[in-house]
Amino acid sequence: MKLKPVLLQSALVFTCCAAAGLLLSNQLSQALGQQPAANQEPEVEQQLPAALEEILRNWERESAKIEKLEGNHLRREYDDVFQIEKKSEGRFYYEQPDKGRIDIAGMKIPEGAKSDKPNDKGDFYALKPGQDERWICDGKRIFSIDENEKKYEVFPIPLERRGVNIMEGPLPFLFGMPAKVAKQRYFLKLLVNTPEQIIIAAKPRRRADAANYREAKIKLDPKTYLPAAVQLIHPSGNQSTVYIFSNVVANKNRGILGGIFGKDPFTPDLDDYRLEGKVVADAGEENVQRPVPKAAPVQQAAFKVPNMVGHNYKSAEALLQKMGFQTKVWPGDPAEEPRLIHHVYQQVPVPGATAKKGQTVHLKLYIDPNKEKN
Question: Which CATH number does 301-374 carry?
């Protein structure tokens, strides 16, 4: 099913907080060190129109001025198969080069309310609240915090992925990626260029990026070259996510934030929360792993199943097995595009479900349409 365009609404912000988890809920393999395939195509710089070249240079220059950022966000998740929109809101924080935080809360939906996105039956998508989430990245670890269950997970970030190398993550264009690198890594197209707005479409060249999203559309404010909104089209093509930003403050004094949180917002207070998982890395040491306290024995620990939809099955199996799950792959529908062959489009248990160590996660893959289904 082809995705209908989603309007990217106006708001002023540059959100570098992807490090804290705008997409990390779906991209843990990136944080854990997934590397591009060895046989990927060489990155050849794309020749672009002069207008887009100038925009990329201005964007790079203005992005370099951002050291700290915070603001509000609205998240809209669209499922074109079930014709549902989920709405969430919250705040985000970012500090160069790799600290970030995002708090997400599902919005209260009035009874009978519907989305403003029309469906194919002359009606509108159903409207539901999104999931409550909190992600914090302190530069060395990523904390995934479940507020409802009062529990959390910790994912160490390998040394080679820290600092400025965060641009190797799933949303590098939000971090002021150099224009030359952007042209090597993405097929770029200028969709809108007016005094009121700039909209750029970016399609991944790398296989690792294409496993995360099929296309991104970034809306910029021409006065500041700061992204106002981002639309991400999922690899399957039948899901998309839009982030809209507002009330953004750049380079704010950290003392004000300290007054709100009582301390650094990138240091979570988890005294009343239960640790899930096998290990946790200390922030002051390099990937030192310590056992889970006896109060939460490994054999009883429950894990949240990550979203492997859109990933190549090899990287999906590697991450799941690293978390202690068993895996089994199943042939599914023929791939509509060659780049989707052997990529996951369905999994059981579903993403976000709770499972125990040793449980099997079933992955259904797109198959090569030129070969018989096994």
Answer: 3.30.10.20
